[in-house]
Amino acid sequence: MNFYENVDLSEPIISRFDILLVLKDEVDTNNDIDLSRFVLNSHFKSHPLNKSNHNLIEEREYIDDEIEHIDIDLLRKYVNYARSKIRPKIQNIQEDNIIKIYNELRKESVLGGGISIVVRNLDSIIRISES
Fold this sequence. Notes:
Layout: H1 3-7, H2 11-14, H3 29-46, H4 72-85, H5 92-112, H6 119-130
């Protein structure tokens, strides 16, 4: 199916998203089992009634102890600081690249019969570049 058939949204609605990704899901039993264990362990560990720090489900490859966790208060401070102090600006060289990318996307959308690229998409490119 094409993109429109998959998402069943109109072009004006689709143009409001900054990023659209089409993912193909391929079944891989071993990977699915590992992912399931990871998600379940994450859920069990974060549950308020869980008093222990050990994994409740056996894991083959993932070892939680190897991940360094950031304290939630420190993360909040960092996000608040970034919101109040960081003001990214696009440089001249980036302006040229953004114009080039926008024009190439518009050409491809016409030739490929895909989603029309509009000025709103240029705003998305700018926001992503600043990020």
